[in-house]
Amino acid sequence: MKYTYRTMGTCSSLIDFEVEDGILKGVHFTGGCNGNLKGISALVEGMKIDEVIARLEGIRCGGKPTSCPDQLCKALREICD
After folding, report:
1. Phi, psi at residue 13, to the nearest 5°?
2. Checking CA distances to 39, which of 14, 32, 65, 71 falls within 20 to 30 Å?
3. Which part of the chain is the TSCPD domain (predicted)?
4. Dist CA 12 CA 48 (whole Å)
5. Residue 72, Cβ neighbours under 10 Å: how many?
6. Under DSSP, is residue 9 helix (H, G, I), strand (E, B) or coil?
7. Which pLDDT tens digit goes with each residue over 5-58?
8. Measured on CA atoms in the order 61, 2, 78, 14, is the torsion positive or negative?
9. What is this structure's pTM?
10. Rg, Å, the chain Cα set
11. CA dihedral 7, 80, 42, 9 (to 10 degrees)
12. Domain residue extents for the chain
């Protein structure tokens, strides 16, 4: 299933992704640090949702209370609840 999540508190504004049988696919961030977000997308491609959350949840960017990887986790938690 395809999802779009509007981020809060980050340079990126949207995260588009798919989940199929609990596996994350097709992650694309709109805005933000292009190279870093392409890297994150490539690394999480094919991972189980719970593994992505375990590895990336709570990461902060600079002095911000969140980050793009943390926002991805918030999106994943939202669809799992």
Report:
1. -110, -25
2. 65
3. 4-78
4. 23
5. 28
6. coil
7. 999 999 999 999 999 999 999 999 999 999 999 999 999 999 999 999 999 999
8. positive
9. 0.96
10. 11
11. 20
12. 2-78
